[in-house]
Predict the structure.
Amino acid sequence: MKNYKYIILTIFLTASLIGCIPTQPMYQMSTKITPMSYAIGSNSSAIATISWKEYFSDKNLIALIDTTLANNFDVLIALQRVEAARAGVQFSKGLLLPSVSISGTAAIRRYGRYTMDGAGNATTDILPGQTVPVNLPDYFVGLQTSWEADITGKIQNRKKAAVARYLSSIEGKNWLITNLVAVIASTYYELQALDIELEIIRENISIQENAVAVVTSQKESGAANELAVEQFRAQLLTTKSLEVEIEQRIIETENQINSLLGRYPQPIERGKTILTHIIPTQLHTGVPSDLLRNRPDIKQAELELVAAKADVKAARAAFYPSLSITGGLGFQSFRSNLLFTTPQSFVFSLVGGLSAPLINRSAIKAHFKGASAYQVEMLYNYQKSILNGYVEVYNQLNNLNNLQRIFGYQNEKVNILSQSIQTSNDLFRTGRANYLEVLLTQQNTLNARLDFIDVRKRQMLSQINIYKALGGGWK
């Protein structure tokens, strides 16, 4: 008995020494330190902590976002990915526990006469006065179990990786929601801007139609020529074609929102809050380290890094010995009517096996190297997501400040040019200005008013983008 113990111990030590050859050290990883502030904006509590229902005040917009989060197909797909990841966690947990199955088998065996089994059976009584038959039936009913004891932590690390990826899928869903909220809000205000642009164009069409009537009247009285009439009419046609283009863009923008809402084309209810909304001169951005807690994409990248680390540990554990235990318990007999005869038909087994890779470990080494490389990739991805988040916030803060200055210039420009339309018309009627000056004034005023609305829209979009860049919108 002692000899068997020594043999088993020797095998175990040999397998351990050969199987546990140290692998190459992993890449020494380090992370960059984020700046202490954005240098622009307030460092008090970040607006990212505010719910989108509080951040946006337009009731129509809130209703659209609510519908989107309930019906958007990308959100529904993301939820199914979360469920799939949750199933992966349950699967990994199951690997830690023994598996037990019930089984029933019916077989027949025939051993060759000139074999050890056949020769032995020929002289052995299976029942008193009856030798073992040549064709030997075999019936079994019972339980069978198998279990890999996680002595190296391989299965536990696989579970950790599955849990991290499940949490990562949740953050991926949250990041999708953040982007959807931003897209819906941005498209909604783009639609409002198009409505106002259409009003401006139609007002300009009315002004140009009056100008055509005036110059036509002057032509009839000899104060103007046909060239002036043609130029005014051409400008009117250009503006009318621009009106049609804006109408088409409104249709497409409405349907872009409808598509995100998961519904077929229909009118989008909206107001003109883009004109009345107050753009704050300074936003509460918090500190850059808040991005690690608020931005789902950064949290997702961090969890993917955690999963990659666990994968590396599991791949390293594949070099070590593994212990497997199998067993069975039930009834076995060569006759079905004797199957449940106890204790004669009662059987059980318990087998423990220890194995370790010794030769041709290239596949294990390749898997370990791949897992290590993927871990480094996830580290770089994590650092990249932090850097991108910081740059996005910094850019939008500067953009919002600069747009505020541009808005002031454009507002003053519109006021001046709007007044110049009446001035040019009066001068034209009295012959102190030619028709080209009137046309140029009308065109410049139209462009200035459209540019003014565009700047206002960009201000709204910048405010939305800051909210998204800080990690708001998913709570």
In short: The chain is about 65% helix and 10% strand.
